[in-house]
Amino acid sequence: MRWTVLRRFAISCVLTAMTLAATARTRPHYGGTLRVETAGDAWERPGGIARRLVYDGLTQLDLSGAVRPALASSWESDNNDHRWQFRLRPGVRFHDGSLLTSAAVVASLTASCNADCPWTAVKAVGPLVVFTNDAPMPNLPALLAGDQYLITLKATAEGKTPVGAIGTGPFQVTGFNNGVLALVANESSWQGRPFVDAMEIRVHRPVREQWLDLSVGRADVVEVPPEQLRRAQQQRLTVLISSPVALLALQVTDAGALANVKLRAAIAAAVDRSAIYNVIYQKQGEVTASLLPQRLTGYSFLFPTDRDLNKAHELRGGMTTGPLTLATEGDGAMQLAAQRIALNLREAGFSVQMASPGAQHADLILREILRSGDEPAAALEQAMRSAGTMTQIPAKSSAELLKLEQTVLDEKKVIPLLDLPCAYATGARVRDLRLRADGTPDLADASLETAQ
């Protein structure tokens, strides 16, 4: 009997010790420097990895995509959503110590948003930021969570232009040397101090070199392009994968020869989405002909995705356009996809030339359109604005959204191709890193198991 009691006591002690050890391992630690690498620019819009570390918006989306307060603690609308007022969170300060005011918010929004604003006027009224528009703005709180509406300091208390990037975010910039952006934790962040003391973001780093640095412990968080997800999993990298948040789409001009909607429709019918999906993107994401993913609307399957070369020839009807230029906003897989599209269009009788990457005035531009949030109407408006089709989306029901999206897609100025996820690989010491609703990593809430 005595030995049984002692044995049970010993087992209980062992289990308690194991539980405490496991808790210690999983509890977030303060300290250390998180090392991140990216192929692009840390400040690029949208999606630059440094932007949400240094800046905040009036609103934000939580990890599930719901709208939550940020610099604005509350908001309300009147006049049938023609007017919105956002009340600022009190006591928030920029990194230089300047107080966040409604005037500072208006100055930032005015500088960052010009002709494509979802409002016609924005003004400061005491602690309120007031937006007005001739048309209803039912989706404004969700839109203001977007990357382009993050708040930056435009003038110091002395009226001078600030030096460097100054926001209210969880990190502030300390320098940029040899391709490395250095950030330090904002001790007085309104969201609370981040777990890591500092962050280093190495920019313009090829993905192959990112993965090498991760494997030898020189990086903690690196990018995984969709087309390399399978390879990353084969190499047993620890990968975080978002739901499909990026829409790969072909943007078509409606000027010149392509002013004829039949020619634009012929282009849409000629593109082989399945080949791009299967061969180039290695079956990652989803083939689509809709602006919104199936998970948000339930009707994406109604838009046909199959290539129809006979229909493309029929729509073109012998009409000629002269040489068309095709450009991309990215490299790697997007360049290969653009080349495949050019081949598809030549088979349909079009003359197509590849333009320089990033060309702004091409007839056709292959690009990624980022979407986020769990509200279909807001996500549709965000996608349309990103595609250059500016409109308010008052529709709420699936039937109304379907009708509206069908009207937009019938113009064939935007041709959806694939819904793609975002993905990142992490090192062994990274803890609690999650992806936001737009697929970007929430680095401010990550911690390191050991401080280095």
Short account of what is shown:
This protein is α+β, with helices and mostly antiparallel strands and 452 residues long. Helices cover 28% and strands 22% of the residues.
Structure in words:
With 452 residues, the protein is α+β, with helices and mostly antiparallel strands. The chain has three domains: 33-45 and 169-242 and 422-448, Periplasmic binding protein-like II (D-Maltodextrin-Binding Protein, domain 2, 3-Layer(aba) Sandwich); 58-110 and 117-141, Dipeptide-binding Protein, Domain 1 (Dipeptide-binding Protein, domain 1, Alpha-Beta Complex); 246-420, Dipeptide-binding Protein, Domain 3 (Dipeptide-binding Protein, domain 3). Helices cover 28% and strands 22% of the residues. Strand 2 and strand 3 form a beta hairpin. Helix 7 runs antiparallel to helix 10.
Instruction: Name the beta content range.
Output: 15-25%
Describe the global form: globular
Number of helices: 13
CATH superfamily of the largest domain: Dipeptide-binding Protein, Domain 3
Largest sheet: 6 strands, mixed
Total strand segments = 21
CATH topology annotation of the largest domain: Dipeptide-binding Protein, domain 3
Break the fold down into its secondary structure elements and pairings:
Layout: H1 2-26, E1 33-37, H2 51-54, E2 59-61, E3 67-69, E4 72-78, E5 83-88, H3 102-112, E6 121-125, E7 128-132, H4 140-143, E8 171-177, E9 180-185, E10 198-202, H5 207-215, E11 221-223, H6 229-234, E12 238-241, E13 246-252, H7 261-270, H8 273-280, E14 286-287, H9 294-297, H10 309-316, E15 324-328, H11 333-347, E16 352-354, E17 364-370, H12 376-386, H13 398-410, E18 414-420, E19 423-426, E20 430-431, E21 447-448
Parallel strand pairs: 1-10, 15-16, 15-17
Antiparallel strand pairs: 2-3, 4-5, 5-7, 6-7, 8-9, 9-10, 11-19, 12-19, 13-17, 13-18, 14-18, 20-21
Helix pairs in contact: 7-10
